[in-house]
From TrEMBL:
Family affiliation: Belongs to the anti-sigma-factor antagonist family.
Protein name: Anti-sigma factor antagonist
Region named Disordered: 112-134
All copies of domain STAS, residue ranges: 5-103
GO molecular function: anti-sigma factor antagonist activity
Organism encoding this protein: Planosporangium flavigriseum
């Protein structure tokens, strides 16, 4: 099993940024989930951005933690955004049908290759959606 490093910061505009690096799996997800929930409930940010550009692996427990974070943010009226998903994370979220929930581009062919933004237009970057760009 892997290692994960999760850090958080608050921007001047009140946005909470959660930066995740490494592997999110059954051995590492508890710390990520706890930091995510704690950040949302204590800071009450208007926007939560989870940067997943350096996540090398994520299993169903990592996906579950993202859903918990999304629901916790929604409960307080905050926007929840996944930003810069690694290709592995993007594929996992697409397969589970969650890429649209998090405002992420989906692979044009459904598996990989060129990314298409939720509007159906080709994306100019892996982040794809200007709203998700941070």
């Amino acid at each position: 099993m892997g290692d994960a490093l999760v850090t958080s910061q608050r921007l001047d505009d009140g946005t909470a940024i959660i930066d995740v690096r490494g592997e999110l799996d059954v051995t590492t997800v508890n710390g990520f989930r706890a930091l995510l929930i704690d950040t949302i409930t204590r800071q009450q940010p208007a926007r939560v951005v989870v940067d997943m550009g350096r996540v090398t692996f994520m299993d169903s427990t990592g996906i579950g933690a993202l859903v918990v974070g999304y629901n916790t943010a929604r409960d307080i009226g905050a926007e929840f955004v996944v930003r810069n998903p690694s290709p592995f994370v993007l594929r996992q979220l697409h397969i589970t049908g969650l890429s649209d929930v998090f405002g992420l581009p989906v692979p044009a062919n459904g598996v990989g290759g060129q990314l298409t933004a939720p509007t159906g237009r080709p994306s100019t970057s892996p982040a794809g959606n200007p709203r998700a760009a941070g």
